[in-house]
Amino acid sequence: MYIQKKIYGEKHADVGTSYNNLGVDHYRLGQYEQAQEYHEKALAIRKKNYGEEHADVAISCNNLGNDHLGLGQYDQALEYHEKALYIRRKIYGEEHARVANML
């Protein structure tokens, strides 16, 4: 990621993807606070690059919901998962697998 940030800058989409991947790694290790930090960075970059209603923004919202679940913060988890579902419904429609998998 250091090279990506040096070449592209901190707000490039590829840097956001790297933050997302680091968040997933920490989540899988049970390090939910660290995962949340990386997923929040990814979400901010993705919103800046793509706007509020993009598939990558939905992925970040879903990941943040999972982080909050791991931390026992169920109200926040629900908010992020609802946002991810809203975005996916808007992009893909009700019948798409990416929507059905969230229900």
Over all CA atoms, what is the radius of gyration? Answer: 14 Å
Shape: globular
| SSE pattern | HHHHHH
Number of strands: 0
Content of β-strand: under 5%
Please mark out the parts with pLDDT under 50 across 5 or more consecutive residues, or reply none. none
Give the biggest sheet: none
Number of helices: 6
Mean pLDDT: 90
Please bin the fraction of helical residues: over 70%
- Structural class, from secondary structure content? mainly alpha
What is the CA-CA span between the terminal residues? Answer: 34 Å
Topology overview:
Layout: H1 2-8, H2 13-28, H3 32-50, H4 55-70, H5 74-92, H6 97-100
What does this entry look like structurally?
The chain is about 80% helix and about 0% strand. It is mostly helical. Helix 2 packs antiparallel against helix 3 and helix 3 packs antiparallel against helix 4 (about 55-70). The termini are far apart.
Comma- or semicolon-separated keywords:
single chain; 103 residues; mainly alpha; 6 helices; 0% strand
Quick overview of this protein structure:
InterPro entries: TPR-like_helical_dom_sf, TPR_rpt. The protein is mainly alpha-helical.
